[in-house]
Amino acid sequence: MGVEVVVDGLSKSFGAQTIWRDVTLTLPPGEISVLLGPSGTGKSVFLKSLVGLLKPEQGRVVINGVDICTCSERQLYEIRKLFGVLFQDGALFGSMNLFDNIAFPLREHTRKSESQIREIVLEKMEMVGLLGAEEKLPGEISGGMRKRAGLARALVLDPEIILFDEPDSGLDPVRTAYLNQLIVDLNAQIDATFLIVTHDINTARTVPDNIGMLFRRNLVMFGPREVLLTSTEPVVEQFLNGRRQGPIGMSEEKDAAQAAAELAQLRDHEVGVPQIVPQLDVSPGLPERAAVRRRKDRVLRSLRNLAPAAQREILKTLTPDELALYGFAAPATGAWPTEPVPQRVPVAEVPPQMRPTPRPRQPDPIVEEPAETSRRRWFGRKRGAR
């Protein structure tokens, strides 16, 4: 299972420019999370901060009990072994064929034999549907294939946390849909913790277990997907509807009076976010995502703390048997109440496999560097055994 990532009070600036401040969230282990936000809000900077490539001015990032913002270089090196990263452009070396690109982290960070490396690389290429393309160069394949090759390379060290930096960038809607299904299927197979930075609304509505949003140097919200997808926050409604009217302007900031006037004009015509669509399920023949049950246990324990609209959407996903198991009364008329009222179920009556697994308590943009430099910084670390 993937590991939990605890972000507490994180703030990042470049000189006098504040990128974001006091960002606090927890990536639940093994679940898929998405981070949304307009262009220029520091989403890619956030990913780099999670792996220690950028140092924040304040706050903590705690992984396996280690705060990577203050730990030693040796500890950071060990924590980075938990990560796999799919860079926005795939970050493939143009002079290497796909096999050598995917094998690169194994050759740099492990002492495995070439026969072992070949076995691992072919296994990961099969997982992403690239078998038979081992000898092709990145310039000879489509953008979608380059994304899949980058994903295969992110998988070769068997990471417990995988970061996706705008995986849909440069892809048409059909290829994006295929990639989204691949992400869900991979999560079912490896049960790692996924964080996806994206602008794609369809991805945000169908893929994740949890969604967050950055805007105006703050984390607007982060939590179960139903919370953001039913939100009445103007910036969320504007973003999910993809419209001009609202707080987001061409340069992110918009005059407050102008935004208020635009929203007032919309009230009689367009209100709310789009209707929630079902979350993507795994492809036939693959195991169920273990994260689904863990998430259900986690969310239902804190259901009363969520907005009524989010509560209703969450309860709609439960079967009658699950409603009874978790102690909720099914609505007699088919309409969900404004305030779902849980009925307590003694722990002894809940089957062991449905109980949450106790875990030790954890302690409570934008400057871009050239792609080649970024790759060398990420992969150009000292060699060491896994």
UniProtKB/TrEMBL annotation:
Read off the InterPro entries from this record: AAA+_ATPase, ABC_transporter-like_ATP-bd, ABC_transporter-like_CS, P-loop_NTPase
- UniProt organism field: Saccharopolyspora thermophila
Look up keyword Ribonucleoprotein and say if it applies. Answer: no
Alphabetically sorted, this entry's keywords are: ATP-binding, Nucleotide-binding, Transport
Q: Annotated Gene Ontology MF terms?
A: ATP binding; ATP hydrolysis activity
In this chain, the stretch annotated as Disordered covers 333-386
- Keyword check for Cell division: no
Stated name of the protein: ABC transporter ATP-binding protein
Start and end of every ABC transporter domain?
5-241
Q: Where is the composition biased (Basic residues)?
A: 376-386
